[in-house]
Amino acid sequence: MTLAWIPLLTLLGVLIPVPMERFGRRLCTLATATPVVIALILVLSQLPMLLSGGLPHFSLTWIPSLGLDLAFRLDGLSLLFAVLILGIGLLIILYASYYLSAEEASGRFYAYLMLFMTSMIGIVMADNLILLWIFWELTSLSSFLLIGFWSHWTDARKGARMAMTVTGAGGLALLAGLLLLGDMAGSFDMGTVLASGEAIVADDRYPIMLVLVLLGAFTKSAQFPFHFWLPHAMAAPTPVSAYLHSATMVKAGIFLMARLHPAIGDSLLWSWLVTLTGMATFLYGAWFALVKTDLKAILAFSTVSHLGLITALLGIGSPMAIVAALFHILNHAAFKGAMFMNAGIIDHETGTRELDQLGALRHAMPMTALVTMIAAAAMAGVPFLNGFLSKEMFFAETLYTPLLGGLGWLLPMLATLGGILSVAYSLRLVHAVFFKPARRQPPKTPHEPPRLMRAPAMLLVMICIAVGLFPALLATGILELASTAVLESVPELHLAIWHGVNLPLLMSLIAIIAGVATYGLHIHLKRFVRQFAPIDARLVFEGAIQTIASIAHTLTRRLDNGSLQRYMSWLLGGALLLATLGLVQLPRLDGGQATHPVDGILLLGAALMIFGAIGTVVSHRHRLISLLMLSVVGLVVSLTFARFSAPDLALTQLSVEVVTMILLMLALFFLPQKTPRESSAKRNIRDLTLAGSLGMVIASLNYAVLTRDIDSISNFFVENSVPGGGGHNVVNVILVDFRGFDTLGEITVLALAGLAIYKLLNRLRLFMPHSDGEGRVWSPDRYPMILTSVSQTLLPLALLVSAFIFLRGHNQPGGGFIAGLITAVALILIYMARGVEWTQSHLDFPYQPVAIGGVAVATLTGLGSFVFGYPFLTSAFGHFHLPWLGDFELATAMLFDLGVYLAVVGATLMILANLGKVTTPHRPRKDDSRAGTQQPQPSSKEPR
Amino acid sequence: MRPEVALPILIPLMAGATSLLFWRLRLAQRLLAVGGTGALLLTSLWLLHSVSRDGILVMQMGDWPAPFGISLVADLFGAIMVVLTGIIGFAVALYSLATIGRGHEAFGYFPLMHLLLAGVAGAFLTGDIFNLYVWFEVMLVASFALLILGSEKAQMEGAIKYVTLNLLSSVIFLSAVGLLYGMVGTLNMADIAQRLSQVEESGMIDVLAVMFMVAFGIKAAAFPLFFWLPASYHTPPVAVSALFAGLLTKVGVYALFRVFTLIFHQNPGYTHEILVWGAGLTMLSGVLGAAAQYEFRRILSFHIVSQIGYMILGLALFTPLALIGGVFYIMHHIIVKTNLFLVSGFVNRLRGSYDLKKLGGLYRTHPWLAILFLIPALSLAGMPPLSGFFAKFIVIRAGIEAEAYGVTFIALLVGLLTLYSMIKIWAEVFWKSPPEPGENEPELAPVSQREMWQLYAPIVGLALCTVFIGLNGQPIYELASASADQLLDPTRYIDAVMSDSGEVAP
């Protein structure tokens, strides 16, 4: 449980700073630091157990089915990193308290910092690959928030985005790699994975897994060529740079490589990839550190370089190399942390980080100068400081590795070259800032910072000196402990300043001497460098992003150009392609069922239908004709129903046709009578091909289905219609009983459509055209007398008919739907004959409630059966005898049918009334001037 | 009798009808909105509870035995979807109180919302292929009406595209149903599955499968059938966008899952291979479409498309783990995507714009809103430990296990681009300093305390769901796993429907 408290404490630390902020900076800092101190103590309290060979472990299941456990371990490697993270974290908290100006939101800053600390602790302590990855991503996130802390500043935002994108990409590669790794090892448990190194390396998928995992590690640890985000992350406040981008987060990749080394490190591929990448990064970073002029940029590239050094050591992979890598991690954290903090102090006190504006600061800030100089010396690898020791070990390892075979001399040579560059840039930094006179005045007059702000850096430098002087005493223990986690057998460590005169010492000496010389020639170097146009990684990155966006834009435009025709053609094309693919697979189209004999009537019907369909298309620019053609199709369809003994369907289809046609005509009234020619010939061809082929595919499918056997459920309906549904009209019983639920849905659709049209037309105000498409003015006889009187007479009759149709519906063709349509037709007639105003003044009720009332009645009927404990819509019926009228049958289905009736009538009227009301009473002046003979009203329109 | 099977459809249906009857009473409509969706949420939880306790529940409509009547079937997957409908419905109803203007309310916003929910729930619960079509129509018409409520030009344009392309889907769907009936002579999905397994000619089945794939693919906004979505989703009031974003495409996805596990699973080498391709292209085209956008809701709309790809991938890989991933993904996505739209609406309410270039500075002024954006946004991008991470994780792991490396690579890449996209929004809307206000910017009414609550409550609630799914993944995973089991073993569904033959009505 103690183990779980370590990340938990830092996590709690996330919640502390924001509420504590109001109590002042000092208290807030203290409160934030407290859990860190406790966590550090907890980590150290595990030492005895570790030393006695135990492995502190904590595990809690999270999603066991996915192999994800909340499992932590604290072996030597974790301990080393945990101490680093918590220890330097403490110093940073102290430092930041002075660094941030008074008006900055320190609470938020600390909260992000603690979130970051938690995720780092999580990475190093995770005992499960997936858990490790989760924390890995959290470091990306928290570093994103920290880099962008000064969010009003464009550089900060862009740097943050870049860091997030690059490390995010690496993170996803790592995820894939870890998934593969877990798959190979058979578990995500760290112990299991680390123990199955042989099986992993032997696996076929090893190379791809290795590349993926390394991608994750390299992006995080800013290895060449993924290093470019790190210098831009320097837009972060300096405490963040010191903490994340030198001491901890960038070491996460290194940690990962060290952690997984036992599992995946034992192969030639590993050695090659990791060593060469590391060496390349080492040199590349060192070179750019030498030529940059921004203080933090120099440190950033120097960090890149040192990370490369560590990576190269991990690649070499011999036991001593691993130890050297771990040692250098510690050393680098100490001196680079101090360097960054001092860079921040200089920036803070002078207001600039440009070398040009800095100089001769040793007078103004002697203590800072001293501390920086020592740290820089450690960085350069000057004897008696910690950096010297690990760097010498690095030199030694490059000498002894068998990696490059015949080219074995190359590695030590490159290493020495890197060493030379490090000496040169360290020297340059110190000299330019503290000794050389400044070329321009810095924005602020420099002076020493508060003592406590200096303290963290001083402490780190003291560590540098102490370790440099007494390595055996101070470093051996923790290094041995840490390397037990990576190595099976830890080599005997002899950390000492003096090993006698040997090659590594010689290399160190060469590096220092040549380094000083290089700095002497620095001016020439600068001239040389100036010949190359500088490459700003951010511009390149943003450029790449822009390119992706514009390619995406072009692609999307091509697919999605906002044209409905284009969309339709894609959709239909897609459907056509897929259906054709399927159809081709069919061995034969004909299913073998005998076909129905064709007679003259059928042929005529088919011909009419085809004629109607083609006519609709051909005449589509003359809308009225097109509509008439369409009605031919509808009519033939209803005749077809009648021919194949479905009178109910025929009746329904017919009334639907009538109502639709009338409504369409009303709508057409407002539209131009002719459509302009819009499609080019090319497009016509395309559309024709598409439509034609789709038609053929659908026809083939129909043919295929119709010529095959079918064993349908329809017999059940015929048999059960009377005994079960209480009606002889099977179609109606299906509608209101067997499949009443469908009908309920459909009348809802109808009511909804009414509502939609009501809304659509409600505020629409259109001018009426005063003449038809041919320029003929409308007939002056607004409400033809004959029509008025006939419709008046017809209305009661029609209502009677619809009542009749409704009542007999259960047993003979008819029913609520048809009855509703008939009522609607009759009312439409009234509208046409009398105009909207007259009709509405006589039929004065809102239609929405009628339509929706129908739905409600139907639903309630269905719900009624719940009361009796039956499923929804269970019907009941009985026979009654009424005098004069004869035998009657009352079924709950009838009530349901009433709902259908109401919905149909209500919805139709809603559409009709609103279509009628569309016209505005105000007409264009031109029309007014011709009023009288030329201003007749169309019959369905309201009067002026 | 188990009323909870039908109630999730009937409650919104009745709420919609009642709400319409109170056409002029604004208060009654508002109360009904919250009450009705609240009741829906509660019954849906009841349903999920019953289903996970008693197994697949069936109600035969009209007490007609299957396959003759219409069966309502609630298996775990369906029940989960209904619960999500309830959650989203309730959240959006609350949010609507503060964001839907009087003008919209007067034209029946709330009744339409209820009826839309009824359609969605109907689609999730029906066990009948034609009935599914009916509920699709209810959804389509209700959503069309909601789209045009504002009568603005952009809304009309979007709505016309929306309705045309969706009607096309309906036509294909209906033709496919007709052909299917012509082949097997039944409409009950369980019965269809049973009879299809006896059909010898697999070619015909494949053709039909593909037709259904196209019809539902349009609904689900899969490549290359997604155009209607980005053309219309950014136009209506944001509550409507949120409702659509959460639920509508997911009905298409649901239908794909249902049909391609229950009915068309005989030849996965053909059908599911097409789905794999479709999934990959959907992911890519969606995320690339988003890359070029600078309008808050349009970015989010394109991301719906890309996320649909992940869900379809879960189905397409057709392994137990992949299906679990698919179901998990749907659960996560509905909540997160709705929430992102709600946040975009909040931003619009505060700043009067959806244009990223005109926004900025909210990180300083509204830090809580910033965090509430970050939670669903990072979840969408798959950041741990939020719900999206687990969803993506399962799908990707399934991809690796199935050795579908190409499409897995696409899935990872799209995850990265999604992350970039979310960061873009974050940097532009929250981090960046706001641009100087223009000359004739309309003065925005200050947000009242009460509105603040109505806006924050659903956002916070959904964000908590996201975090809860992340931190408490095991039960959710088990739920997804159990429903994937049911999906992979159609006999359980078939047995439940066909054995539960109600008696013939009295």
TrEMBL record, chain A:
<feature type="transmembrane region" description="Helical">
    <location>
        <begin position="109"/>
        <end position="126"/>
    </location>
</feature>
<keyword id="KW-0472">Membrane</keyword>
<feature type="transmembrane region" description="Helical">
    <location>
        <begin position="650"/>
        <end position="672"/>
    </location>
</feature>
<feature type="transmembrane region" description="Helical">
    <location>
        <begin position="567"/>
        <end position="586"/>
    </location>
</feature>
<feature type="transmembrane region" description="Helical">
    <location>
        <begin position="36"/>
        <end position="56"/>
    </location>
</feature>
<feature type="compositionally biased region" description="Polar residues">
    <location>
        <begin position="931"/>
        <end position="944"/>
    </location>
</feature>
<feature type="domain" description="MrpA C-terminal/MbhE">
    <location>
        <begin position="683"/>
        <end position="765"/>
    </location>
</feature>
<feature type="transmembrane region" description="Helical">
    <location>
        <begin position="6"/>
        <end position="24"/>
    </location>
</feature>
<keyword id="KW-0050">Antiport</keyword>
<dbReference type="GO" id="GO:0006811">
    <property type="term" value="P:monoatomic ion transport"/>
</dbReference>
<dbReference type="Pfam" id="PF04039">
    <property type="entry name" value="MnhB"/>
</dbReference>
<feature type="transmembrane region" description="Helical">
    <location>
        <begin position="684"/>
        <end position="706"/>
    </location>
</feature>
<feature type="domain" description="NADH-Ubiquinone oxidoreductase (complex I) chain 5 N-terminal">
    <location>
        <begin position="63"/>
        <end position="110"/>
    </location>
</feature>
<dbReference type="InterPro" id="IPR007182">
    <property type="entry name" value="MnhB"/>
</dbReference>
<feature type="domain" description="NADH:quinone oxidoreductase/Mrp antiporter transmembrane">
    <location>
        <begin position="126"/>
        <end position="396"/>
    </location>
</feature>
<dbReference type="Pfam" id="PF13244">
    <property type="entry name" value="MbhD"/>
</dbReference>
<feature type="transmembrane region" description="Helical">
    <location>
        <begin position="455"/>
        <end position="476"/>
    </location>
</feature>
<feature type="domain" description="Na+/H+ antiporter MnhB subunit-related protein">
    <location>
        <begin position="786"/>
        <end position="909"/>
    </location>
</feature>
<feature type="transmembrane region" description="Helical">
    <location>
        <begin position="813"/>
        <end position="833"/>
    </location>
</feature>
<feature type="transmembrane region" description="Helical">
    <location>
        <begin position="598"/>
        <end position="618"/>
    </location>
</feature>
<dbReference type="Pfam" id="PF00662">
    <property type="entry name" value="Proton_antipo_N"/>
</dbReference>
<feature type="transmembrane region" description="Helical">
    <location>
        <begin position="132"/>
        <end position="150"/>
    </location>
</feature>
TrEMBL record, chain B:
<dbReference type="GO" id="GO:0042773">
    <property type="term" value="P:ATP synthesis coupled electron transport"/>
</dbReference>
<protein>
    <submittedName>
        <fullName>Multisubunit sodium/proton antiporter, MrpD subunit</fullName>
    </submittedName>
</protein>
<feature type="transmembrane region" description="Helical">
    <location>
        <begin position="275"/>
        <end position="296"/>
    </location>
</feature>
<feature type="transmembrane region" description="Helical">
    <location>
        <begin position="241"/>
        <end position="263"/>
    </location>
</feature>
<dbReference type="Pfam" id="PF00361">
    <property type="entry name" value="Proton_antipo_M"/>
</dbReference>
<dbReference type="GO" id="GO:0005886">
    <property type="term" value="C:plasma membrane"/>
</dbReference>
<dbReference type="GO" id="GO:0008137">
    <property type="term" value="F:NADH dehydrogenase (ubiquinone) activity"/>
</dbReference>
<comment type="similarity">
    <text>Belongs to the CPA3 antiporters (TC 2.A.63) subunit D family.</text>
</comment>
<feature type="transmembrane region" description="Helical">
    <location>
        <begin position="30"/>
        <end position="48"/>
    </location>
</feature>
<dbReference type="InterPro" id="IPR050586">
    <property type="entry name" value="CPA3_Na-H_Antiporter_D"/>
</dbReference>
<keyword id="KW-1133">Transmembrane helix</keyword>
<feature type="transmembrane region" description="Helical">
    <location>
        <begin position="407"/>
        <end position="427"/>
    </location>
</feature>
<feature type="transmembrane region" description="Helical">
    <location>
        <begin position="308"/>
        <end position="331"/>
    </location>
</feature>
<feature type="transmembrane region" description="Helical">
    <location>
        <begin position="6"/>
        <end position="23"/>
    </location>
</feature>
<feature type="transmembrane region" description="Helical">
    <location>
        <begin position="453"/>
        <end position="471"/>
    </location>
</feature>
<dbReference type="InterPro" id="IPR003918">
    <property type="entry name" value="NADH_UbQ_OxRdtase"/>
</dbReference>
<feature type="transmembrane region" description="Helical">
    <location>
        <begin position="107"/>
        <end position="126"/>
    </location>
</feature>
<feature type="domain" description="NADH:quinone oxidoreductase/Mrp antiporter transmembrane">
    <location>
        <begin position="128"/>
        <end position="416"/>
    </location>
</feature>
<feature type="transmembrane region" description="Helical">
    <location>
        <begin position="132"/>
        <end position="150"/>
    </location>
</feature>
<feature type="transmembrane region" description="Helical">
    <location>
        <begin position="68"/>
        <end position="95"/>
    </location>
</feature>
<dbReference type="InterPro" id="IPR001750">
    <property type="entry name" value="ND/Mrp_TM"/>
</dbReference>
<keyword id="KW-0812">Transmembrane</keyword>
